[in-house]
Amino acid sequence: MLGKQHNGRAFGLSFRLAWRNIWRQKRRTWLTALAMIFSNILLIFMISLQFGSYDMMINNTLTMFTGQLQVQRVGYLDNQKMRDVVDDIGALASGIRKQFPAANIAARANAFVLVSSDERSFGTQVVGVEPAYEPTVSTIAGLLSEGRYLEDKNAAEIVIGSVMARNLKVKIGDELTFVGSGKDGSFAAGVVIVVGIFDSGSQDLDRSLAEMPLAYFQTAFEMGDSGHMIVISHDELSAATGMIEPLEALIAKQDELVALGWETLVPGLKQAIQADMTSAWFMYAVLIVLVAFSVLNTQLMSVLERTREFGVIMALGIKPRRLALLVLLETFLMASLGLLIGVLLGALVSGYFASVGFAYPGMDEMAARFNMSPVMYPAVGPLSLLLGPSVVFVFCLFAAIYPALKLYGLRPVEAMRAV
Questions:
Q1: Are 167 and 303 members of one domain?
Q2: Final residue in a domain of this structure, among 209, 233, 257
Q3: At residue 184, does pLDDT exceed 70?
Q4: Mean pLDDT of the chain
Q5: pLDDT of residue 1
Q6: pLDDT of residue 366
Q7: Range(s) of the domain holding residue 184
Q8: Are 177 and 86 members of one domain?
Q9: How far separated are the first and last CA of the chain, in Å rounded?
């Protein structure tokens, strides 16, 4: 018991000494603390903005066409065979809508066909969609540069991309002939009227995608009441991710079906985010190392200035270990000051921009072209607030190890003679 009280009093004394010591040179202490505060504010804002841009990137990519979740037949994602269908897809989509009323759900069917105009022919992907529900899971309907979107679920009409329209040399009202294979392997063909042309800003998408009503698609390709996928999206990506388990329970009776999240549907998107995060941390690392060297310089100067003082203390019987711990405690207090003030100010700055938004100059035209918002909103959360400052804090503590270790080589007599 007495030992614990003694240790408590010793720590309290060390704490007071450390606090007094860091304010011996107020200007130097504040300059070092301000370096930490500035770096923490910058890291919090940049990481929050980065996380916000990732959310925006994911949402914009997925809402373009893919959706956040899909229900498919097992194996269809890797090998899109016409016969790998979801039976009675309309009824299943209706059942999912009833269980998840806040989600947007649409059924689709896919086929690869040869589409021809009077002058040219090209291979393309044709997607059968539900005109009433497809605009809720895809932005294609909002990217039309000419004409209108699909309306009648049974109409022989088609919406194509701007590059395809240019390649086929067609315009609104022209007829296109498509030829492909039906679900049962039979010959599938039809004549459709171009009612809309979209411009997504993606050359590949505008060249290789066309949409027609699902009911007409099912008739033309001998699909019956089946389709290939049910696309699901939600206003909140986290909410869509949380739907996977209950969705799997809903389709559990059909062993051949599977629910796929966006990371499986678009693996390249996750890899792009990871690559961007890695490259960003190289820049952050430079800032953190500069701050750590600032702390190293401050503490090393502090130790050298007090060489004579340390020599007297060691001559009185204080061990170098106690003095080294004192230097580390001084660094801890200074780093804590930078951490607390930096996190507070960083949270205020990031919170402000999370409310009003942040836009890079010149983003308006590019965003409008892709039917996107030009404003980004930083994602403020515990991770974005504490990740950068915590790394700065740890590196500052490591930077104090060298000045602390120098005390172990200090000789009391020589130190007391130091000027």
A1: no
A2: 233
A3: yes
A4: 87
A5: 46
A6: 58
A7: 69-233
A8: yes
A9: 43
Rounded-to-integer distance, Cα 55 and Cα 275, Å: 15
Q: How far apart are CA 178 and CA 96, in angstroms?
A: 32
Tokens 């965003």, residue located: 367
Cα 62 from Cα 123, distance rounded (Å): 24
Q: Which string of DSSP letters, residue by residue, matches 22-62?
A: HTTTHHHHHHHHHHHHHHHHHHHHHHHHHHHHHHHHHHHHI
CA 205 vs. chain centroid, Å, equals 23
Decide: residue 35, CB within 10 A, 0-12 exposed, 13-18 middle, 19+ buried.
buried
Q: Please give the residue that has the higher pLDDT: either 366 or 199.
A: 199
Burial (CB count <10 Å: 0-12, 13-18, 19+), residue 186: exposed
Q: Strands 104-116, 229-233: parallel, antiparallel or unpaired by DSSP?
A: antiparallel
Is 89 found in the same domain as 227?
A: yes
Looking at 207, 233, 259, which one is the last position of a domain?
233
Beta bridge partners of 181: 187
Q: Which residue reads 């890695």 in tokens?
A: 278
- Integer Cα distance of 9 and 326 in angstroms: 14
Q: Are residues 48 and 113 in the same domain?
A: no
Tell me the C-alpha to C-alpha distance, in Å, between residue 214 and each of 74, 129, 211. Answer: 21, 5, 9
> Element (H or E) spanning 307, and its range?
helix 307-315
Q: Is the pLDDT of residue 257 over 80?
A: yes
Examine the domain organization and report whether 57 and 73 are in the same domain: no
- Helix or strand or coil: residue 352? helix
pLDDT at site 61: 81
Burial of 370 (0-12, 13-18, 19+ CB in 10 A): middle
Average pLDDT over residues 128-154: 92
Report the range out of 103-112, 354-363, 400-409 with the highest average pLDDT: 103-112
The whole-number pLDDT of residue 388 equals 92
Instruction: Looking at the structure, tell me whether residues 276 and 397 fall in a common domain.
Output: yes
Report the pLDDT value the prediction gives residue 411, as an integer from 0 to 100: 74
If we measure between CA atoms, which residue out of 42, 11, 69 comes closest to residue 239?
A: 69
Query: β-pairing, 157-161 with 187-198?
Result: parallel
Q: Tokens standing for 149?
A: 């979107």
Overall number of domains in the chain: 2
Q: How buried is residue 101: exposed, middle or buried, by Cβ count under 10 Å (0-12/13-18/19+)?
A: exposed
Q: CB 239: neighbour CB atoms within 10 A?
A: 13
Structure-model confidence comparison of residues 148 and 9, the more confident one: 148
- Cα–Cα distance measured from residue 57 to residue 270, given in angstroms and rounded to the nearest whole number: 10
Rounded to an integer, what distance in angstroms lies between the CA atom of residue 385 and that of residue 115?
53
Q: Over 80: is that where the pLDDT of 413 sits?
A: no
Which residues have C-beta within 8 Å of that of residue 298, sequence separation ≥ 6? 28, 29, 32, 334
